[in-house]
Amino acid sequence: xxxxxxxxxxxxxxxxxxxxxxxxxxxxxxxxxxxxxxxxxxxxxxxxxxxxxxxxxxxxxxxxxxxxxxxxxxxxxxxxxxx
Length: 83
What we know:
The protein is mostly helical. It has helices spanning 3-27, 31-57, 68-82. Helix 1 (3-27) packs antiparallel against helix 2. The protein is flat, with a radius of gyration of 17 Å. The mean pLDDT is 94.
C-alpha cells in the first residue's frame, strides 16, 4: 500500500468518524452529552480538513471549480422551491 492509498483510507475513516459524531450529537439525550459529541465532531472535522489539504498539496485529491452560472442556476432552483 502506497502513501496515497493510505491517506485515502485515513480520509475515508475520518469522514466516517465525523458521521458517527454527528449522529451522536443529534441523538444525545442531555446537553452535556450533546456538547461532548459536538466538540468531538469539530475536532474530527478539523482533522479531516488537514488530511484533505495534505492530499491536495500532493495532487492526490483534485477538485473541480464550479462554474458561476451553474451555481446561480442551482441557487435559483432552491430559492424557487422555498417560495
